[in-house]
# Entry
Amino acid sequence: MRNFCLAAVGALLVTPPLSSAIAVEPARPAEITLEAMLAKVFQSIQRNQFDTALAQTDTLLRTYPNFRLGYLIKGDLLTAMSGTQVRSFGSASNAPSERVADLRAEALTRLQAYREKPPTNRIPRYLLQMDAEQKYALVVDAHRSRLYLYQNDNGRPRFIADYYMTQGKLGVNKIKEGDKRTPIGVYHVTSKLPRERLGDFYGVGAYPISYPNEWDRMHGRDGHGIWLHGTPSDTFSRPPKASDGCVVLANADLERIASTLQIGVTPVIISNDVEWLSLDDWQIERTALKNAMEQWRKDWESRDTDRYLSHYSRRFSSSDGNFNAYAARKRQVNAGKEWIKVGLSEVSMFRNPGPDEVVVVNFMQKYDSNNLKNEMKKRQYWVREKGVWRIIYEGAA
# Structure
């Protein structure tokens, strides 16, 4: 009789029973191939179908030959099938004991994410509006160690795929250089570093992101060198918390999303725990901010400086100083205006993750008046104060 306690471990990893989770999961694009295969292995173990589990594990390893977790599971299966009791996950004699905890954490994270996929009729709260040039957006859920890829479908984000990812050793909420944490916020891809310029540690390449952004600097957060990057050539994936703050993907997954990344354009939104909205609620939030922006534009054109300044938080700051300095300058400028026309285009709006109600807005601004004409790319941070959207930061993008 085979003594195999890995079945209990498998049950722990996928509780509630995986079969019931699969039964209620709505259809989604078939992209999480590894998680699906891993789930079937543990499902077979739960059913005491060890021969089937071993065959499924072999198939998984042929597909992903560097997947160390698969070898650990296979070792436990072979040990149990030889008549030796497997008392815990990774108890085979040749198991790398120093890595068992990391591999178990990876198994748990992958299977939980597979079981707890977000509903197909929900949208990440953060993708309020993508500019037409922004073909794709990345949303990171640190709690689930997942990176979600969305496509811009005529302004509405459409789910494409999601991938397992590694975050900082000490989790999220980066504050300072060297704290081993991954930042939370709205960023964008700033460049591409090809494999040839990097060591093998970074895998097939790296894509730096724009940390720290203006909001980070306003809150005293510093550091640099936060990248999306791959894994060493001999490593399929790393534990859920293993980087110095970067977002790390398997090389194959990074290559899959590489064609979607537009330098200086693609948003990368990192959240501790993604909030999901129904399409109706998403549209309500989106419309409310668009209306606030339109009223700001109209009040600017009106040359009524008090009405215009009512759209700015008293906590406002910019390169020109605080609210009082900005207000004084605007009053002086408007005194010399006979008429003003302001046009906004290429508008994007991304809500900042976290408890603060903050939205990052980028747009192309065309300004015409009786004595000045210019065009510039502008970035604003809007914050909701007592139910009213106001601008707390403004500057060139």
